[in-house]
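We store sequence with structure; for instance:
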Amino acid sequence: MDIRLQKILSTAGIASRRAAEEYITQGRVMVNGTTVTELGTKADPDADDIRVDGRRLKPPKGRRYILLYKPRGYMTTRSDPQRRPTVIDLLTKGGVRDYVYPVGRLDYDSEGLLLLTSDGDLAAKLTHPRHGVEREYHVRVRGVPEERQLERLARGIVLEGRRTTPAEIQLHKTLEAESGPQAVLAVIIREGRNRQVRDMCDAIGHPVVRLRRVRIGPITDAHIRPGEFRDLDAREIKALQRAADATPVRKAGGGSAKPREEDRPSPRGAKSPRR
């Protein structure tokens, strides 16, 4: 049966559908010896010789869903031209040989929870802003934002000519540092622009000192440490799929950044994190 190439690539765990489209337009995909560059091209994954960067596609053995705590100083990518350490290096050291790729971004200087999977369809849903899957961050900033500044963040900030979607912002605590007062904010967003939370905080004059992602949709784990990872259990995978398939109601403003208790999967019974 003929299927669109981008779906074949995502199903095989090569990339999300969006990334697979880029592979095609960049001329990195061949079908039966012919380079394909047109989106919408179809092929039969059971009968055709499909190759990406010269490597023939193999049918996936099974989906894998990995939760990793990304430390600061690692790139969220499969490889880096500057040879900086990547999240894949952490998995490789831990014995993972499956082809998985990061779902969304977590920049070099940030840390926290990151999903990696070979499920291209789920990855596409989790990263597309239309599905509005929540990401929660604990963000330490310089200075203490005023209430009007927090409300501005909640309503949306114009970044590069486009306003961010409404967010949920909560002042978690204040503290004193050598450089002066700082604040810790709980921030929930439903889109994933590059360096979005950092740019939002810069826009109100309170640059980020430390940024940590603590939740992706319903997935959280307070016990996993930097550099550790584990496979999601069946209940977590189903919860993640439900969140990706849901159509959220957009809020007009901010609110409490505390996730609902029923959205927090218990880490009990999950596999122990690995280094």
Notes: The chain is about 20% helix and 25% strand. Residues 251-270 have pLDDT under 50 and may be disordered.
